[in-house]
Write a structure and sequence with these properties.
about 170 residues; alpha+beta; Glutaredoxin; globular
């Protein structure tokens, strides 16, 4: 499992763009995790699935609400990762009103989850292999804080916890 001091894996995530601009075309665009994190402080959190109850009611809204506070303490970007496709993540971004606050990144084949060792096996529940729920603070591509949730919990990966770690 990834740990504090490790570098983000060399994985390409996908991001859906509604409008063309800033070098991005409309539709799914590749995001090289290492390159996108280089020279930045990233508040990254991962969820088991888009549109799922805890993720939609608590996890994403907490980061949207705390986006300005996180940026005020030096966080350049907030990333939400989920094992969903870029189209689902784009729809979820619209639903959660994350534009300009949280980048909704698709880990469609669970490559990032597998590379970090943070997978969650939800086979038998109709969801297949997913990402565990966690948050991490990443500085210049290196993990400086990692908060992995126990199964079925939402206690340490919330925005308030990561905000306090970013302030430290």
């Amino acid at each position: 499992m990834i740990k504090v001091g490790d570098t983000l894996p060399a994985i390409t995530l996908m991001e859906y763009s509604e409008v063309e601009g800033n070098g991005c075309s409309i539709g799914p665009n590749p995001v090289d995790a290492q390159k996108a994190a280089a020279g930045k402080t990233i508040a990254l959190f991962a969820v088991p699935g888009a549109f799922t109850p805890t993720c939609s009611a608590k996890h994403v809204p907490g980061y949207v609400e705390n986006a300005e506070a996180l940026k005020a303490v030096g966080v350049d970007e907030i990333w939400c990762l989920s094992v969903n496709d870029a189209f689902v993540m784009g729809a979820w971004a619209r639903d959660q009103k994350t534009d300009g606050k949280v980048r909704m990144l698709a880990d469609g084949d669970a490559a990032f989850a597998k590379a970090t060792g943070l997978t969650l096996d939800l086979n038998g529940k109709g969801l297949g292999l997913r990402s565990n729920r966690y948050s991490m603070l990443v500085k210049d591509g290196k993990v400086v804080a990692l908060n992995v949730e126990a199964p079925s919990k939402f206690e340490v990966s919330d925005a308030a916890t990561l905000l306090s770690q970013a302030r430290a």
